[in-house]
Design goal:
- This protein is α+β, with helices and mostly antiparallel strands and 168 residues long.
- It contains 5 helices and 7 strands.
- Strands 1-2-3-4-5-7-6 form a 7-stranded mixed β-sheet, with helices on both faces.
- Strand 2 and strand 3 form a beta hairpin.
Amino acid sequence: MMFTLVPVTNDSQLRELADIACGIWHECFPGIITEEQIDYMVERFQSYDAMCRQIESEGYRYFFICDGEEIAGYTGFRPEPEEGRMFLSKLYLRADQRGKGLASAAIDALCAICREEGLERIRLTVNINNHQAINVYKHKGFVIAFDQKADIGNGFFMDDHVMELAVN
């Protein structure tokens, strides 16, 4: 494995990221949420337009997760300095890239960003039925802080664990 985080800095990269996100969501979430909810959430949170808004008005930063020259997945976060934390909104890998240590390496890199920016912890939300992701996060030291159920519109809900990791 030759891990790198590559910043998404231009329009063509963001369009590529949106295409990758759509593919990953449709391979990762069947059996956890319905196809209808996958389509809705991709459009609302993972589409090109949604990510443009997140970058422009919410302070999000996006990165490709790469293994050598190959894009294996992506991550997106926003610093929340007033809370002393990073909100890790997205960390997704293609199915054929899981199990290589890339998620672990990405979390380590995000911890380094937190230290550089004076942030003390990382917070994320993960679907309570996404056991593979929950196990990865627990392995990296994340703990479940609380559970939440959020109405995201169109009759859909996100039923999540909120997990946190103290950054040393």
